[in-house]
User: What shape does this take?
Amino acid sequence: MKEYTPEYLDFLRDIIGRHDEEAARKELTGLHPADIAELYQDLDLDEAEFLYRLLDDQTAADVLMELDEDDRHKLLSAMSTEDIARQVIDHLDTDDAVDIIQELDEEDRDEILSHIDDVEQAGDIIDLLKYDEDTAGGIMGTEMIVVNENWSMPQCVQEMRKQAEDLDEIYYVYVVDNDYRLRGVFPLKKMITHPSVSKIKHVMEVDPVSVKTDTPVDELTLDFEKYDLVAMPVVDSIGRLVGQITVDDVMDEAREQSERDYQLASGLSGDVESDDTLFDQTKARLPWLLIGILGGIGNSIILGHFESGFAVNPAMALFIPLIGGTGGNVGIQSSAIIVQGLANGSLDVSGSAKQLFKELGVGLLNACIISLIVFVYNMFALGPTQVTTIAVSLSLFAVVVFASIFGTFVPLTLERFKIDPALATGPFISITNDIIGMVIYMSISSALLSALGPA
Amino acid sequence: MKEYTPEYLDFLRDIIGRHDEEAARKELTGLHPADIAELYQDLDLDEAEFLYRLLDDQTAADVLMELDEDDRHKLLSAMSTEDIARQVIDHLDTDDAVDIIQELDEEDRDEILSHIDDVEQAGDIIDLLKYDEDTAGGIMGTEMIVVNENWSMPQCVQEMRKQAEDLDEIYYVYVVDNDYRLRGVFPLKKMITHPSVSKIKHVMEVDPVSVKTDTPVDELTLDFEKYDLVAMPVVDSIGRLVGQITVDDVMDEAREQSERDYQLASGLSGDVESDDTLFDQTKARLPWLLIGILGGIGNSIILGHFESGFAVNPAMALFIPLIGGTGGNVGIQSSAIIVQGLANGSLDVSGSAKQLFKELGVGLLNACIISLIVFVYNMFALGPTQVTTIAVSLSLFAVVVFASIFGTFVPLTLERFKIDPALATGPFISITNDIIGMVIYMSISSALLSALGPA
Assistant: This one.
């Protein structure tokens, strides 16, 4: 990975400051678009724009795709819709073009589409815009090499040569029948190992792994991982080839999905990055904090019913963090195991009952160990027959078992109702378990206190 | 993704029960090894073994690679070292072979290596075993197509044809000089578009992205994402080509890394899956729960110093969960943003000071909003001049600011000392902030209580 030193950036700033186009162009030569994008992000907007103007259209379009959405937006909003169509969209693959167009205002979209000179590309983009972003159709591109199953090898090679010119990379050649239904794939490797055969259908691999346009992206990500694919054909409901998904898009999606799960588990709503503005960060963080505050106030109301108890037996108050925290920790663990199992495909919602049963076992085992340890500690700290000693260990036992089951049950139930189970992790589960922990603790303490009196 | 219905599994179990090899073989025909592995995991061990024996060696070896480590271990431990060498290792790529050998007992390794008939493969495996598992050398394979830069195209094609026979997939042809130093890559696409040129060095892409053998895996994962690669050459310290890393291995690594971060954030130590045994799950979960218990006991000791205060002013106890929980939530958010930024490469440890400064801003903003909201609530619930009302809001303010800074500082510091920053997330940060929150809350309350007296 390219890293730019502060010295290099100063050197480059100096060149830009002198408006030395020749020297600047020399620095950009041979750089990968992703590296230019990184450079752009290290520079001020006007410095970056100076460099951007020196790029040829193709490179500029590629750099644009590599930028953060915010930075891309800044550059695009300075361009006319005609320039966006001719200088940017025209040089992009259809899947990237669709991503860009989706980021723009509704009103600009049609204008840009009307300025695209290549009618076929414009048509493909319009088709692609119809698909839901979270489905195979939403991330596929239409650039691929397609040959007819009845063609001979030399015919195919000639056709491939024609089609290949516009493509960056080719992984597979797709083979279709006369109705454009996907029949097979032909790995490029076979062009080397089987240079001359009569018909392509005799060397193609039949029954290739494919997805339908409405397959959810997280499902097809698992397919890519499972079958070690670099590209996958997409077919419509009657099996006609409509596009291709490549592994780089899938990797981006996989990264985004795991970041989203991680953010939800950490109480961050919305996609937030360390380089976002102070205001964006606060906006992403405040919602969960406020829910936590609501939970805390709820807890204060529950504990309020026991206020007189604290006056009589103040030792009860000391273990509030222990009970609440343990309930939260257990719940987070349980829900995380479920969310991860559902995400990586190792767990299926049909196995819910079995999973809950196992979790009951884990919960009971943890509960025994934890409440015993705390009992031994309190035996020495408070005395073995003290109400608090007994109440704390009994409550811990109940809280751990409850939190285990609850933390397993909630994400499984969300998944069953097609709601993102990751919503059930982090703050949600820890706040809920905290509150229920307090109810359990206060109920048991009250009961014991009135039965035994403060010892 | 293939899913087996309970009905299909019953049907298959019936075939296996009747030991009907012909029918069973028919069911397995045409299945991808990954699908057979999935079938295996749905069946009992003896049923799976029956199916496994019906597979040809190549398929059996591929299925083995797709299994969970536990299941693979069961199958391998029933085989002699000679069978492992001839029936399994011999049919695998070197990178997979190394993975399997590393999972075996030290004493079996040499025996297996001595049984490998292909001396070149055995030598490659021995070389690969020397690399650290977390580096490029540890995950690369040696199967690739290599041509000399001075060869002509027909010479290359002939050589490629020879080398390609043993390979599953080919993405790039690597071009080296007479000293085997990497000079360029040659995308297979060019075989179509540039079918005849004098020398390969005139069509190859020079200066390809490559990594050194000691590059950490998480770094090269970012390179794959950044440059949209499907394979990357690995060179030694003087630039000689020693291996290739393919995108499927990188995807597996990326999944593992994000799962590990997620597990650490959720208080799970060690790699735990929903289908692990009850004992394994408890083992992975108990450590953090016990640390949480220690934290809870620590909190009880801190609160113990204030025990008499609870007797005088029991309302203080009601807000313990609010203060502790908020500190924990804020800290988890802050540390998650840092851990994620470091993982996806958007944040660099050299920007620590700037990051801490921004976090101070976010913390102050959140602190103002939160303590104001709680003040307004308590003004009505308890009264505006009540000690508790003032103490709670003051403490919340201090706790939120502290937790923001602390949650940012700890992972950045760990990263600086080359310790995994993900260790600083989840339970660790929430327990620490819980305890420090209590110290702040009790200090402020005590001071106010002695200054103002219980109102």
User: Anything to note?
Assistant: Chain B touches chain A through 126 residues (CB under 8 Å). The CA atoms of residues 37 and 108 of chain B lie 25 Å apart.
